[in-house]
Design a protein that fits this description.
It is built from no helices and five strands. The chain has strands spanning 6-13, 23-26, 31-35, 40-49, 59-61. The N and C termini lie far apart (55 Å).
Length: 71
């Protein structure tokens, strides 16, 4: 909103290949959690934004290379 201060929650599912040990760094306002039903990690956080403010959050992971082998 451009008129009022707002609190918003961010919940973002990471790719299934990303595991806890793959997380190198993330914004301090974020918490890493595991959705046990999906077997997938996600980050969640709550942010208070001033009128007209936006926020970009970041999760840095190690590079993962997956290959498939054709037989």
């Amino acid at each position: 909103s451009t008129l009022i201060k707002q609190t918003t929650e961010v919940k973002y599912y990471l790719p299934k290949e990303v595991k806890k040990q793959s997380i190198l760094d993330m914004d301090k306002e974020l918490t890493l959690k595991l959705d046990e039903q999906k077997g997938q990690y996600y980050v969640i956080g709550e942010f208070e934004l001033d009128p007209g403010e936006s926020k970009t959050v970041q999760v840095r992971t190690s590079c993962l290379l997956y290959t498939s082998r054709c037989v």
